[in-house]
Amino acid sequence: MATQLTLPVRLRDDALFANFYPGDNTQLLAVLTEFVQAETTVDPYIYLWGHAGAGCSHLLQACCQRADQKGLRTMYLPLAELTNADATILEGLEHADLICIDDIQTVLGKPTWEEALFNFYNRSKMSGAHLLLAGNNVPSQLNFLLPDLKSRLASGLIFQVHVLNDVDQLAALQLRAKIRGMELSDEVGEFLLHRIARDGASLFTALEKLDQVSLSAQRKLTIPFVKTVLRL
Questions:
Q1: What is the CATH number of the domain that holds 126?
Q2: Which of 80, 162, 179, 183 is most buried, by CB atoms within 10 Å?
Q3: Residue 1 confidence (pLDDT)
């Protein structure tokens, strides 16, 4: 059976490959789909980077969800959310099949964390675990104290997660709406894009609220309805 190793972190139910609109990330999605098999010739270490809202966290969680479905042992560590944790949480994780570590930049510059990450990386290589890391920039542009850790994190496949353009953002919204059983017209979608922060989290949170209210009120998504629900 699949094992999501225990930590006070829960994967988002909507963080799936199926509802991630690829845009310019088509090649990356293909690589990650193969990567989570944990049995292929794909490099067992991949580093993703992207600006806020690009979808790094979504993809890391989607990898865990897919690996879970295949009966693999997984771990997702969103370091930006684990502000009270210490580096000992890495101990023993190399025995999982897939470990996804998010927001790596939040612990860089901390000697204890960098040493723990360096040792964990080496243990993961020896155990054969698949390791997927994400940060807000390429390793060469992050502030490391430990040069050996920097070289390790720069040694694998590195992909940028590209932010969606306006056309793709509309398509992504419509895909999410369709999965939820809603019809989102171009007009309403463009209204949302112009009135809500463009990052994916804000847009999809708004869509979730619209879904809940429209379902209970049995209303279609129109601009007046959207204005009322979201107080725009």
A1: 3.40.50.300
A2: 162
A3: 35
Tokens standing for 221?
């998504």
Q: Are residues 127 and 188 in the same domain?
A: no
101-136 tens-digit pLDDT:
999 999 999 999 999 999 999 999 999 999 999 999
Residue 142 sits in the same domain as residue 217: no
Give tens-digit pLDDT for 160-180: 999 999 899 999 999 988 888
152: closest CA among 101, 194, 198, 208?
101
Q: What's the pLDDT at 8?
A: 54
| 182 alpha carbon, distance to own chain's centre | 24
Give me the pLDDT at residue 4, please. 46
Cα–Cα distance list, 47 to 7, 71, 222 (Å) = 22, 23, 41
- 3-class DSSP assignment, residue 78: strand
Low-confidence ranges of the chain (pLDDT < 50): 1-5
Instruction: Provide the domain limits for residue 203.
Output: 166-230
Distance CA 102, CA 118 (A): 16
Give the Cα separation of 93 and 74 in Å (integer): 9
**CB-based burial, 149-172: b 16+ in 10 Å, e otherwise:** bbebbeebebbbbbbbeeebbbbb
Q: Which residues contact 193 (CB under 8 A, 6 or more apart)?
A: 166, 169, 170, 173, 203
